[in-house]
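Section 5: illustrative case.
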């Protein structure tokens, strides 16, 4: 049995009304907030540990601490909103909403990484827990896996395959809508796939194998793949996802119209985000080049 067949089989065998569908017929969309204790607890622990770690961080290591903290907390709030706001429930009725949710989750990843959260969170944990986490991260297996997945080529393929699999492979997307466990797996894999990719763009200084200019085509190429998926969804002449044909619509859109809008959202957002990131990378390269020229001129005096 293939992996795809297995995912669809599990979803079919355990099919029930998904718990993430918090919308009720006739009720206001704004009543569809979820209060998943696991998400709330995890977000609270992540927020508190980061804040506690920043307070414990020596001044010498707190460069740009404010901007990093803002980025980290914006990313954390984005994750919480994606998972607990009415967007989650709407995603069971409209592909466009589910697409927005996926974009929120993957956008949160670079925001979290810009916060450089590893050191603050480790400093914020109880010392025994931090020591165990560090020991686990230093094991041969963990270091081997991270060394592999953070390679630019592997990270690129991993992220691209994850995006394509959940949106293009027949049955996977429907399985995620019909089964909570598969739905959680979908979100976890999208976030996990995004982390090594974005680490190559904005990871810790000295650990990025790509220069500023090399990162531009790296980002744009991944964006081209996302655009291609969006075009595939938007231009399909029939509904691709059967689950939306069996649920009631919240907004006055047919499944095909909703699908077309969802594809447009994916490709437009992807293009705009890629242009923004590429522009920032070019500006950083230009600034670094200017600093190097100034240093050379100063050395020649």
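Designed sequence:
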């Amino acid at each position: 049995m293939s992996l795809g067949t297995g995912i669809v089989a599990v979803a079919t065998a355990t099919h029930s009304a998904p718990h993430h569908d918090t919308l009720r017929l006739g009720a206001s969309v704004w009543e569809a907030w979820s209060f998943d204790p696991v998400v709330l607890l995890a977000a609270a622990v992540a927020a508190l540990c980061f804040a506690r770690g920043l307070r414990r961080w020596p001044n010498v290591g707190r460069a740009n601490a404010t901007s990093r903290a803002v980025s980290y907390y914006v990313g954390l709030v984005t994750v919480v909103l994606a998972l607990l706001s009415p967007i989650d429930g709407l995603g069971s009725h409209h592909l466009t909403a589910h697409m927005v949710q996926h974009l929120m989750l993957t956008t949160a990843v670079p925001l979290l990484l810009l916060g450089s959260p590893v050191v603050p969170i480790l400093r914020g944990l109880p010392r025994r827990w931090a020591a165990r986490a560090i020991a686990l991260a230093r094991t041969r297996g963990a270091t081997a896996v991270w060394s592999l997945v953070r390679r630019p080529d592997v990270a690129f393929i991993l992220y691209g395959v994850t995006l394509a699999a959940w949106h293009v492979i027949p049955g996977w997307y429907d399985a995620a809508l019909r089964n909570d466990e598969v739905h959680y797996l979908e979100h976890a894999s999208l976030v996990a796939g995004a982390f090594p990719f974005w680490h190559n763009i904005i990871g810790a200084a000295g650990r990025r194998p790509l220069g500023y200019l090399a990162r531009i085509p790296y980002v744009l190429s991944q964006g081209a793949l996302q655009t291609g998926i969006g075009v595939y969804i938007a231009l399909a002449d029939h509904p691709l996802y059967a689950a939306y044909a069996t649920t009631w619509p919240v907004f006055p859109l047919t499944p095909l119209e909703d699908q077309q809008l969802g594809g447009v959202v994916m490709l437009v957002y992807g293009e705009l985000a890629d242009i923004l990131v590429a522009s920032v990378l070019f500006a950083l390269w230009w600034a670094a080049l200017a600093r190097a020229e100034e240093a050379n001129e100063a050395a020649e005096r």
